[in-house]
Amino acid sequence: VKSSWRITALVVAVAASALAAVAGTASAAPAAGSASAATTIRVWVHSSMKPATDKVVGQWASSRGVTAEVVLKEFGDIRNDLSKVTADTAPDVIVGAHDWTGELASGGLIVPLSPRSTLKAQFPTTTLNAFSYGTAVKRLYGTPVAVENLGLIVNTALAHVPTSFADLERQALAFKKKKKGNLALAVPGGDAYHMAPFLSGLGGYVFGKTRIGTFDPSDIGLDAPRFLANTPLIDKWNDEGLVSSKVTYDTAKNAFLKKQAAFWITGPWETNTLQDSNLRYRIVKVPAIKYRSGPFLGVQGFMVTKFASQHGVLSLAKDLVSSYLMRASAQKTLAVGAGRFPANSIAAKTVTNPIIKQFGAAGVGSPLMPNISQMAAVWSELAGAWTKSLKGPGATTARTAFTVAARNIANKIG
Amino acid sequence: MSTTAVRTEAPAVAPDVEWGIPSRMIAGFSGTTGLVVKLVLLSLVNAIAGWAAIVLARDGKWIAFFVLLAATVTLDAVYLGKRAVPLKFLVPGTVFLLAFQALPIVYTVNVSFQKYAVGHIITKDEAIHSIEENSLAQPADGKTYVMAPAKDASGKLVLLLVEDQSGDAFVGSPDGLEPLPKDALKLDDTGLITGAQGYGIIGNLASVDRELADYVIPVGGGAAIRPEGFDTALELEPTLRYDAAANTFTRIDDGLVFQDNGRGSFVAANAEELEPGWRTYTGLQNFTAIARDPLIRKPFLRVLAWTVIFATLTVIVSFFVGLFMAIVLDKPGMRFSRLYRGLIFVPFAVPGFLVLLIWAGLLNDDYGVVNNVLHLQIPWLFDPWWAKVSVILVGVWMTVPYFFLVSLGALQSIPNELVEAARVDGAGPLQVFRKITLPLLLVAVTPLLIASFAFNFNDFGKIYLLTGGGPPAEDQSVAGATDILISYTYKLAFEAGKGTDFGLAAALSIVIFLIVATISAGTFWRSRTLEEMR
């Protein structure tokens, strides 16, 4: 055993080099072979869109004679990992939310698209604006697929569909008085997203528009005069208990499902919950208050990354995203697969699911959730303003709360 | 396995020697079994290193390549040689120390000197290319075309085009646009080009992808027809021009010049900025930004004071409650003492984030269990003052089991003779506790108190999951009433400006590290002098 350590060294070296050679060729093979082997296009997608994406992208790939690699990713990771991924494993196309557009485009991570005008004509302007971004030139960075927005769910056994906001307020408060534990409106009153209909209904907005029609981070509408003039209504709602920031999302949901609330504000992600609930309900728009009470419109879509050109598949990726996926047939499959209302207006006419249809109708004409990255500065401040002004006794007046929020947001954006 | 190895390989050892487990293990690894294990492990390490070396060499990362090579050779020499016995024990620990402690620190420090944020991710060359591409605009009378890539008679790539409005046919190449007779192109019923006289339409489109990506057909002025995918082309004109020699962008319609500001952006004199920017080293900019930023300066002292109060109270209260419980349950002969100990340990065994989310629900003042069961009307999470109380209470609830366990162990290590001697000298139970038990306990527990303080000082999860830093504080600043330094830092680094700012986050975490390190070092120093005095 003690003969010489040189023998052991030799053994180690030989074993190592053999293993390394195997590993090395295995890792080097795809890199060297990529030019000659079948061209591959890699798509990152989250779970709810995966089956439909597999199908549609697969059909496209076989018609183009290429292979599609559809990779399942956590929704939020698609956005976060795109700035960290190495070129080897990077996607050529991603599925994402429209409010990522500003962050990804201003980072140079996604590339502008120019689909044919005949295809663009099939989409409502809002859904195209959702993926449009630019400080000097407005360009399109994604193909919209599915739209989602909040609606007012009315339990028709407990209340009738309100004819006006005053009617909603009267019915809701009367229902609340009936029994202890009842909620007037089942909505998380401290949540900026779920309170968006009330913001726009009172004439408020988050960001205004620039000259070229993109969101303007220097125009903050939480202290716009026409909105501040209406904020006494928020104080009134707080006094009478119409909305409370102490209600969380789960509290609101449970109250509606247990018939402790006749009105619930939620979105199409609760489609299954509603279907399984054995309740009689209808989904309508939140009635206008002083202005149209539009919820934030969210749009999902496909984007082409900067890696597509590094991989030499830029035209392929654009062919997929700004041509093939814009067509009504692909749009329908994708939106139905996602369980959302289609962005494409031809595909929208074919929707049969009543819940999806009603949610779609409830969102028409609503403002987009801003797609600039400065929105990161807004969420917690806007939520804070609602929380402060709707916390029941001891609440801050809404005028103060929203003025402070607007100032803090401006300071954060800098 | 090790015992058999000991018996067969070490017959020289006297049989009456009682071997400890570590010695047996060491002995076990020095025989043939050990040699085989060593060879397998070492081969594996070498193989992974070899594979990594190939990848590094392929990517041209030569510094990393040579570091790896040197490290592997050293590792082999240490474990195959006979001389460096102490190193054999030191090396694994050192490797892990470097990998999991030193490397993240080096990385953080490195990032803190960079402009690395939303809008500053890619390299400068990529950014220039991206700015050029983003600035392309469709002219007012810009035409759009149905397109098909084809080869002309000489085998060169050309684009066959049909204008959308007029239906006129063209052939385009880098030399320009040439009209074609109307019947030269065959179209299908969707309007796509399916055939052409004198041109071969390309079937394998993927093969011309790279060529198409940069393909432009100049049409006069700066405008050019560019392909979009495989069946569309359109006229686009640049709105910005890059001057590589001067390293500036110029806007074409008004001549506005954008200059490299040295911080990863092209910026004009009127502060207008081109997107995207790029990731670059900016020296101490992130640190000076911290000192200058009014968002940080204004609430800093309030947040720092609350952080210290939060961490101190959580630790001190937990310690005394834990100690009290330990003393109570330390009585010999107490019934069910194991059960009690088990129950006290429960909060420690449940994952922290779960506990926090549950507490957030329990403390809701209208719908939470706490107020409903106790018939209270306390705004636990909605009042700035009560929210602070809630955070500390939950913190204590989560930390008590730890100090209970620690105290239980430490109490048992205090020699009974000391306590008895004090009693004989006439000391009462309180005096014994104050003069004997507590000081002796503190010697053992002080380092743990300091560690726990440092942990709570930076316990982001507790604040983020319980209150999110809220409720809004009375001074109406961005920092909420319960925001501690690290959670406030998160708001600054991930919610301010254009969103995530990795560089600023790294710089802020270094500053926080310095604060914690100073406080901890000071406390350690004081506790050591106390110990020496004793």
Task: Name the features.
heterodimer; A: 414 residues; alpha+beta; 4-stranded mixed β-sheet; 14 strands; 14% strand; B: 534 residues; 9-stranded antiparallel β-sheet; 4-stranded antiparallel β-sheet; 18 helices; 17 strands; 56% helix; elongated; disordered N terminus
In words, what does this structure look like?
The complex is a heterodimer of chains A (414) and B (534). Chain A is of the alpha+beta class. Chain A contains 19 helices and 14 strands. Chain A is globular and about 85 Å long. The relative contact order of chain A is 0.17. Chain B has 534 residues and is of the alpha+beta class. In chain B, 56% of the residues lie in helices and 13% in strands.
Helix segment count of chain B? 18
Distance between the termini of chain A: 72 Å
Mean pLDDT of chain B: 85
For the biggest sheet of chain A, the summary is:
6 strands, mixed
Assembly category: heterodimer
Tally of DSSP β-strands of chain B: 17
Major sheet characteristics of chain B = 9 strands, antiparallel
Shape of chain A: globular
Instruction: Kindly provide the radius of gyration of chain A, computed on alpha-carbon positions and rounded to a whole number of angstroms.
Output: 26 Å
The number of strands of chain A is: 14
N/C terminus separation of chain B: 49 Å
Strand order of the largest sheet of chain A: 2-1-3-13-6-14
Which secondary structure elements does this structure contain, and how are they paired or packed?
The complex is a heterodimer of chains A (414) and B (534).
Chain A: H1 5-33, E1 40-45, H2 50-64, E2 67-72, H3 75-82, E3 93-97, H4 101-106, H5 117-120, H6 125-130, E4 132-133, E5 139-140, E6 143-148, E7 151-155, H7 165-178, E8 185-186, H8 196-201, E9 207-209, E10 215-220, H9 225-228, H10 232-240, H11 249-257, E11 263-266, H12 271-275, E12 281-284, E13 298-304, H13 307-310, H14 314-322, H15 328-338, E14 341-342, H16 345-348, H17 354-363, H18 379-389, H19 398-413
Parallel strand pairs in A: 1-2, 1-3, 8-11
Antiparallel strand pairs in A: 3-13, 4-5, 6-13, 6-14, 7-11, 7-12, 9-10
Helix pairs in contact in A: 2-15, 18-19
Chain B: H1 2-9, H2 21-28, H3 32-58, H4 62-80, H5 85-112, E1 114-115, H6 124-134, E2 136-137, E3 144-151, E4 157-163, E5 169-173, E6 176-180, E7 185-187, E8 193-196, E9 200-201, H7 209-213, E10 217-218, E11 224-228, E12 232-238, E13 240-243, E14 248-251, E15 257-260, E16 266-268, E17 280-281, H8 285-292, H9 294-329, H10 337-349, H11 352-362, H12 369-374, H13 384-413, H14 416-424, H15 429-457, H16 460-466, H17 485-495, H18 502-533
Antiparallel strand pairs in B: 1-17, 2-12, 3-4, 3-9, 3-12, 4-5, 5-6, 7-8, 10-11, 11-12, 13-14, 14-15, 15-16
